[in-house]
Amino acid sequence: KLTDDGVRFIATDYDGSHVFWTPEDNMAIAQKLGSDICMQLDQCIGYPVERRDVERSTDLSSRWAERCYKAHTRPDQALFGIVQGGMHLDLRVKSLQRLEDMGDFPGYGIGGYSVGESHEIMFETLAPLASEYMPRTKPRYLMGVGNPTTLVRGVACGIDMFDCVLPTRTGRMGTAFSSEGRLNFRNARFARDSRPIDEQCTCPVCTGGYTRAHIRHMVAQKEMLGGILLSMHNIYYLLDLMRRARQAIIEGRYDAFVSDWMNSPAAADY
What we know:
By secondary structure, the chain is of the alpha/beta class.
């Protein structure tokens, strides 16, 4: 339950206790953990939702951001503000302006995407927000988005950082990213396939002798090693994709990199 002061929740996976968490509590915990980057406390509203609800949520996140900024005192830890505003560009810009008026955040998260909308709807506001309005001298971090094609397109409009559970969650579900697109190893067509997950991949799984048939068997039998191997591959795949994207930027050919990706089977990843 949300109030202006904070959020109340039940720690169901721990001891069942009722916890009330304020922005100040959020900062105290983050500073004790000592992460290099910490995030303000915010509300991530779903989609679809009425504009008035998005306005209320965005305002709450902005007020919490100010309290987090004042409570954060650890100079060796970067506190990022989070831009909210749903699928409304004007609310996104207003959220960003309020954060910039509060003080000198060293970077900005972009929250509230991948909450039920299509990727095309997401990019209608994300692309102009990142490329036209967000400061270019500070990291722009897209939160909770992680399929390969969205990463490639996100970099094109100015995103610097990503995080997502997708590579490991899809791995546990028996699916993999690949140069052929997304592969579902629950499908019987892999039962006698002696190839690696992706013949173009150099990860320890693809070069370690694990065949598609072997992995398919583990997935079908709910053997946890199958999900572990697919997760390892998926993480390597995304890291390698970002390595290649970075090199394309350095060489001044990122437009061609995006075009080649979008025209390849690998883009069928969602």
